[in-house]
Write a structure and sequence with these properties.
The chain has helices spanning 10-26, 84-93, 112-115, 130-148, 163-174, 191-201, 220-235, 255-269; strands at 31-35, 42-46, 58-63, 101-105, 120-121, 126-127, 151-162, 179-187, 209-215, 243-248. It is an alpha/beta fold. The chain has one domain: Alpha/Beta hydrolase fold, catalytic domain (Rossmann fold, 3-Layer(aba) Sandwich). The strands form two sheets. It has an eight-stranded mixed sheet, with helices on both faces. The protein has a two-stranded antiparallel ribbon with strand order 5-6. α5 (163-174) packs parallel to α6 (191-201) and α6 (191-201) runs parallel beside α7 (220-235). The longest helix is centred in the middle third of the chain and has 19 residues, at 130-148.
Length: 273
């Protein structure tokens, strides 16, 4: 006859609960603020401790679709946002990622598709203004961020999901001297017959460090496209140190799914010192 499994004592249970609570209290929160004086709304996350040391500088991650990153009420589906501040707080607080400044740039509404695509797609009768959008980021926003915050020279990343992932991939390939890291979540590789793969083929710069992922519930075309992008990057010299590919079997094409994965992206792109 099998003996009943011993139950934990009340004291042991309380000790475990207190340890969990203490770990939660140990995670300090960063803060989020708006940037005034720019052509569209920009939201900036500053990690905990930013205001305590004026001699420390930080890498910067520029993220697309700023509406969906920090604010539940402004998300595409209200209440379903990336919870990016919470993810960054947890990764930085638990020292699985280095502190980073995150800049969320709101998309341009009806012009989003045009700005987030590097080429025109005849099927959609539009697109192809990504380089114009790049000038907005590089010539206007980045100098503003560098002047207002303690950024670390030469340590910039770009990121986004869906078409935001596509434009981020394009900018990382076209401006590797600026963006040395990229967070590419559920990218729209399908745009214009997978023209982004051709950009990988012609790339000759310093390889940016890339996080690339896809959700298993996004459809066969989306998964095949992400795998094709992964394979093309590997064929052109990316390796396990410079590329991390992840498939979330339960992931669909939503802010809720990207919220589950964004901490992993931060940890790969900004590993602890």
């Amino acid at each position: 006859m099998t003996s009943p499994e011993p139950q934990p004592s009340l004291a042991a249970t309380l000790r475990r609960l207190f340890r969990v609570e203490n770990r939660r209290q140990a995670i300090r929160k960063g803060r989020v603020e708006r940037v005034e004086g720019f052509s569209r709304l920009v939201t900036v996350y500053l990690p905990a401790g930013y205001d305590e040391r004026d001699d420390r500088r930080y890498p910067v991650l520029y993220m697309q679709d700023g509406q969906n990153l920090f604010d539940a009420e402004r998300a595409y589906i209200p209440g379903q946002h990336w919870r990016l501040r919470e993810a960054a707080d947890a990764a930085i607080g638990e020292r699985t990622a280095s502190p980073v400044i995150i800049v969320g740039v709101d998309h341009a509404g009806t012009a989003r598709i045009d700005e987030y695509t590097p080429t025109k797609d005849p099927r959609y009768k539009g697109g192809g203004r990504a380089d114009e959008y790049a000038r907005l980021l590089l010539e206007k926003l980045k100098p503003l961020i560098d002047s207002r915050f303690r950024t670390k020279a030469g340590e910039n990343a770009i990121g986004g999901s869906s078409l935001g992932g596509l434009v981020s991939m394009h900018l990382a390939l076209k401006h590797p001297e600026v963006f040395s890291r990229a967070a590419i979540l559920s990218p729209s590789v399908w745009w214009n017959k997978r023209s982004i793969l051709g950009e990988v083929d012609t790339f000759t710069g310093s390889r940016p460090r890339i996080w690339l992922d896809i959700g298993g519930r996004e459809g066969k075309d989306a998964v095949d496209g992400a795998r094709a992008l992964r394979d093309r990057l590997v064929a052109h010299g990316w390796n396990e140190r410079s590329l991390r590919y992840y498939e979330d079997r339960r992931g669909d094409h939503s802010e809720r799914a990207w919220a589950r994965r964004v901490r992993r992206a931060l940890e790969f792109l900004f590993p602890p010192a």
